[in-house]
Automatic annotation (TrEMBL):
Residues 213-398 form the Major facilitator superfamily (MFS) profile domain. InterPro entries: MFS, MFS_dom, MFS_trans_sf. It comes from Pseudomonas umsongensis. Keywords: Membrane, Transmembrane, Transmembrane helix. This is MFS transporter. Pfam families: MFS_1 (PF07690). It comes from the Bacteria.
């Protein structure tokens, strides 16, 4: 039986841009936690460290879609080096200001500018879209990218923390900076697979976030991100409450493994079900599978619950990305993909902060109620969004 993932790489240049893109996207998962680890070691305490990392995260959420909008207008090779230079240069200044004990306000200023780093996962997906637009291989490519995103967030944080602790405090963010420079350079040098700049029509001017369809998809991504943020924080708190703090890493690994396996399996399918209906099914399944989280009473039960909760995360993300490819004009594809990634990141931040407050106030398991609430939002977004998307796609087909 043919391996659909191996077939993807029959396209010339595919292996090279995927590898370069993987290196270039690692900084997004390494920088925030690296800043927290670095500043907590050098400054003492987590208040300043968390605030600087939050500034970086919020700046990234704001800047990434704007960078992608410029990429759609002027091309990857013209915008990505500038974006990486500005973002990477500002991150380097954060490290220098920390080492030189500059005033705290300088850390916030340069952390905000560091948010200009490009969303490399969207850039890689844009190249896959250009290669396989309108073909079943595109779903497989999006599945592969979802799994690689998972791998990035599994490997990146512990790598960054480990470097900061074992080598020197700035080592984690510095490694992220080097990966950004190497990855983006290798990526933009691959001219043969770069998507062409598509003409912008008059009625398509302005940001794609004004589109109702993108707004509903982004709302769903924010809600899914909240679930992820809740699982991250509550798993750590729950394991500590059970007297097994090291078990948190096992729980989080199980969650990621469930999502990765489901994503790989889903990407290998050649479904004939229309995308809006798949979107509805995935949204309903994502909402329902949050319910077992409330039943966890020990580490084994929590591991099983988060495994189930992770099963429909990657498939839902894959379908959402595929819908963007169908509803967004080619001239705005990268921006559209980036808004979904941004929504996910915003959701993770909300989920982590909200569940952290609930854990402190009401105990570890209480945080899961925020995941249930997010599941309800996922359900509502899927029901309304699927109906709207089905009508719009039918109109476009007609």
């Amino acid at each position: 039986m043919a391996n659909p993932y191996r077939e993807l790489f029959n396209a010339p240049g595919a292996r090279a841009f995927v590898l370069a893109g993987m290196i270039a996207r690692m900084p997004i998962s390494m920088t925030g936690i690296g800043l927290i680890t670095m500043l907590s070691q050098l400054q003492g305490g987590y208040g300043l460290a968390g605030a600087v990392a939050a500034t970086f995260a919020l700046a990234t959420a704001f800047c990434a879609p704007q960078v992608s909008r410029l990429v759609d207008r002027f091309g990857q090779r013209r915008i990505l080096p500038v974006s990486a230079l500005i973002g990477g240069g500002a991150l380097l200044l954060v490290l220098l200001c920390t080492r030189l004990q500059a005033p705290n306000w300088t850390l916030f200023v340069f952390a905000a500018i560091a948010g200009c780093m490009p969303s490399m996962s969207a850039m890689v997906r844009a190249r896959w879209t250009e290669l396989y637009r309108g073909q079943p291989q595109l779903q497989t490519a999006y599945a592969l990218e979802s799994v690689l995103d998972e791998v990035c967030f599994i490997v990146g944080p512990p790598l960054s923390v480990g470097l900061c602790v074992v080598a020197f405090p700035e080592a984690g963010p510095l490694a992220a900076l080097l990966m950004l420079a190497i990855g983006v350079t290798a990526f933009v040098l691959q001219r043969s697979t770069e998507p062409p700049v598509h003409a912008h029509e008059e009625h398509h001017k302005g940001s794609i976030i004004r589109s109702r369809e993108i707004q509903w998809l982004m709302l769903l991504m924010v809600a899914m991100g909240i679930i992820v943020g809740v699982v991250d924080v509550v798993s750590v708190a729950f394991a500590q409450q059970q007297g097994q703090p090291a078990a948190a890493s096992i729980v989080l690994s199980v969650y990621a493994i469930g999502s990765c396996l489901a994503g790989l399996a889903f990407g290998a399918l050649r479904s004939t079900v229309p995308l809006p209906r798949l979107f509805l099914y995935c949204g309903v399944a994502t909402a329902v599978t949050t319910l077992p989280l409330l039943l966890a009473v020990n580490i084994l039960g929590l591991s099983l619950a988060v495994f189930v909760a992770g099963l429909f995360f990657a498939p839902t993300l894959i379908v959402a990305m595929a819908l963007v490819e169908q509803i967004v004009p080619p001239a705005k594809l990268t921006e559209g993909l980036t808004w979904l990634v941004t929504g996910l990141s915003i959701g993770v931040a909300i989920g982590a902060a909200g569940s952290g407050w609930m854990v402190d106030a009401f105990g570890a398991r209480s945080g899961f109620w925020l995941a249930i609430a997010a599941g309800v939002v996922v359900l509502g977004s899927a029901i309304v969004g699927a109906s709207m998307l089905a009508m719009d796609l039918n109109e476009n087909a007609g």
